[in-house]
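Recall the central idea of this unit: under ordinary conditions, the amino acid sequence of a chain determines the structure it adopts. In this exercise we apply that idea directly, starting from the sequence alone.
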Amino acid sequence: MIRRTTLHALRCRCSRGFTLAEVIVVIVIMGIAALVVVPQVLDAGTVSIQAAARLIVSDLLYAQNEAVAAQASFKVAFDPTNNRYQVTDGNDQVLTNEQIGGPYLIDFSSDDRIKNVTLATTDFNGQTVITFDEMGSPSAGGTIELTSGSRHYRITVAPFTGRVTVESL
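Accordingly, the structure predicted from this sequence is:
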């Protein structure tokens, strides 16, 4: 038996698409997901304070490594009043930041990446300066606290080892 195919039967078999209702449902679901996810991803305050914390941690480790490599003291001097810090040698001479070719001075107020972050407090046994000796040990353990809006981070430097940790408060 030969089967006759009509134009209508061919059209029905080939038209496999989405209905308008299905497309609208998918668009609504994607819109709701975007409303929930995008603000969390684009939260500039969180990004800024995390960047500031990473920057401080890397500079503390840099000073510690330089102290070991040069077998000399290196310091990180924090200035919460002016919202900045600098990396110096044992004679308080500011180091040159190789990346920018200028002094190793980080000013939160003038750096667009972290200008909404405040260097709230620093405490290294009552001092705002931490010194790493030629073995990489800090002069004292202590904390650095950062704020950005309602976000607070604490960077802790362990005494003796100089281990640096970061926590969100």
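The CA atoms of residues 20 and 150 lie 44 Å apart.
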